[in-house]
Model the fold of this input.
Amino acid sequence: MKGKSLKITNKLGLHARAAAKIVALSSKFKSKITIANGKKIADAKSIMKILMLAAPRNTEIKIKTIGKDEEKAMNALEELFLRKFDEE
Done:
C-alpha cells in the first residue's frame, strides 16, 4: 500500500473537470485507489464520490493505492495534481 498527502492548488479545487481527470487516470490502473478529505473517503474511480469530498483550493487530501501497479498509480496521480489538472 502506498499513501501520500497532496495539496489541491488549482483555482477551482476538486470540481467536475478535475474529478473527471482523476477518474480517467485512475481507471487505467488495476489498483484500488482512494482519496480522503478528512473523514470523507472516495473511490478514485467514481466521479460522484470524488465530488462529494467537497475539496476547495488549498485542501490537503490523502491518496492511497493498493495493488499490483500501486506505485505507478500514485506517481501518475501525484503528477496530475502537480500539473494542477492541466488547467493553468
Summary: The chain is about 35% helix and 25% strand.
